[in-house]
Write a structure and sequence with these properties.
The complex is a heterodimer. Chain A is mainly beta. Chain A has one helix spanning 2-13, and strands at residues 24-28, 34-36, 41-46, 56-60, 73-74, 81-85, 92-101, 107-117. In chain A, the strands form 2 sheets. Chain A has a 4-stranded antiparallel beta sheet with strand order 1-3-6-5, with no helix packed on it. In chain A, a hairpin with a 6-residue loop joins β5 and β6 (81-85). Chain A is elongated and about 40 Å long. The termini of chain A are far apart. In chain B, β14 and β15 form a beta hairpin. Chain B is mainly beta. The chains are: A mainly beta, B mainly beta. Chains A and B meet through α1, β1 and β8 of A and β3, α3, β17 and α4 of B.
Chain lengths: 118, 319
């Protein structure tokens, strides 16, 4: 029993080839933050590499209208980074909505807000 | 659940086997359409961890090995410890099977210690619904505790089988208004079930029907950090889920005894491939016991650790 447990634990801990759910690790602008001046883009860093074709991010204003430049991309040098460009944003509150498909087809999604001040 | 019925085939045996296999293959394909994997406890932005005391409201490919338990002392001073293993395996994306058993250690004052197998439990589960927008999910199941699979004479394990229909549910509070932002990470999961023993009496002891109920209230730090406000907490703090669980059982017929139950505050650390949980066990009344017990669990996400083999629903493995 103990040997079986140790073997399974080792397999689970040291499974470098395995991929898993992609959780949002951090973002810029940060989740729930207030920034001064319009940010040039929104960057999301995930805990796993993303599948570019099926991972999306949208930024909407308080009326729910999409205001990003619709040029979502996965960073070529860092497959855990998804970003989208922004036009010059007036002060206000904005919502980021993301959907991530990790490379082994596990899906995750989430939303968060940030605020722009002059 | 999918009712399965075998009937005599009215045509030639070879053709019959072909028809049956083709039908099974078609059925498997139909119920396992290629789609992104959305396993162990996700409803929209909500990730529900596997809680320790209360059953989870989702089908999953997961394994707990081991769960080590030291219960509070019983009213008569008996000390009970166990080493348990549980496995949950999806057959289709919405239908799964479970199995669990334990090895017990019992020390009653004035008597020699007794060890041996606990009663084996197996179950079937069906995911009734998952609502991503409202972070809600529901699951119906049937658990069977098999009589004579534990040490009946020495440990008092049952000599009869018990059937337990279950309903498990989960709800995240992410749909609260923004004015209640810091309450959004809260989530609650709960269980309702009734035991139906297949034997009403053994050696003069009556076996009542029991009403089982419980819930787990949790506050995932990862939800706070990724959905509400990034306070800069990173590994390993971001993976922490403080929680409190409660479960009780109330017999309601056949010389029914008192309600027994426990409250279990603790924390789960949920990583990418496994989670580790630890909780205190506090008896809810004197009938349950006295003192403080404890439980620790190592829990593996098979779908994340082995996404192309053990972690897939069985029906998808043969596509």
């Amino acid at each position: 029993m103990i040997r079986l447990f140790l073997a399974l634990a080792l397999l689970a801990v040291a499974a470098p080839a395995a991929r898993a759910h992609a959780f949002l690790d951090h973002a810029n602008p940060a989740v729930g933050s207030t920034v001064h001046g319009s940010p040039a883009d929104v960057k999301l860093w995930f805990t796993q590499e993303l599948e570019p074709a099926f991972s999306t991010v949208q930024v909407v204003d308080q009326n729910g209208a999409e205001i990003d430049k619709k040029d979502k991309a996965i960073d070529a040098g860092d497959p855990t980074l998804m970003k989208v460009s922004l036009p010059r944003l007036p002060p206000g509150k904005y919502k980021v909505m993301w959907h991530a498909l990790s490379v082994d087809t596990h899906t995750t999604e989430g939303t968060f807000s940030f605020e722009v001040e002059p | 659940m999918f009712p399965v019925k075998f009937v005599p085939c009215p045509i030639d045996g070879t053709i019959c086997r072909f028809v049956v296999r083709a039908g099974l293959a078609a059925a498997l394909l139909a119920i396992s359409q290629s789609h992104p994997v959305h396993a162990h406890g996700f409803a929209g932005a909500r990730f529900f961890p596997a809680t320790i005391l209360t059953d989870d409201p989702f089908v999953a490919d997961e394994m707990s090995l081991p769960t080590l338990t030291r219960l509070p002392d019983a009213p008569d001073g008996t000390r009970f410890s166990s080493l348990e293993s549980d496995i949950a395996k999806r057959i289709t994306p919405d239908f799964g099977l479970t199995w669990s058993d334990a090895y017990d250690y019992v020390q009653t004052p004035g008597l020699p210690k007794v060890t041996g197998l606990d009663t084996m439990t197996a179950g079937a589960q069906y995911q009734l619904f998952i609502n991503g927008e409202h972070e809600a999910m529901g699951l119906a199941g049937l658990k069977v505790s098999w009589g004579h699979t534990g040490r009946v004479a020495a440990l008092g394990q049952p000599d009869f089988t018990t059937l337990t229909p279950t309903f498990d549910w989960g709800k995240g509070f992410g749909d609260l208004p923004d004015s209640l932002n810091y309450l959004k990470p809260f989530a609650i999961t709960g269980n309702l079930s009734v035991d139906f023993p297949t034997k009403v009496e053994s050696a003069g002891t009556q076996h009542p029907n029991n009403f089982n109920y419980g819930f787990a209230l949790e506050y995932p730090i990862s939800y706070l950090e990724s959905q509400v406000k990034d306070f800069g907490l990173r590994f390993p703090w971001q993976q922490m889920i403080p929680l409190v669980e409660f479960a009780a059982v109330t017999p309601f017929n056949r010389g029914s005894g008192p309600t027994l139950g426990s409250v279990q505050p603790g924390v789960i650390w949920a990583g990418q491939y496994f989670q580790i949980g630890a909780e205190m066990i506090l008896p809810m009344n004197r009938d349950t016991g006295h003192g403080i017990g404890g439980i620790v669990q190592f829990h593996i996400y098979l779908d994340d650790s082995f996404p192309n083999s053990l972690g897939k629903p069985l029906a998808e493995l043969f596509k």
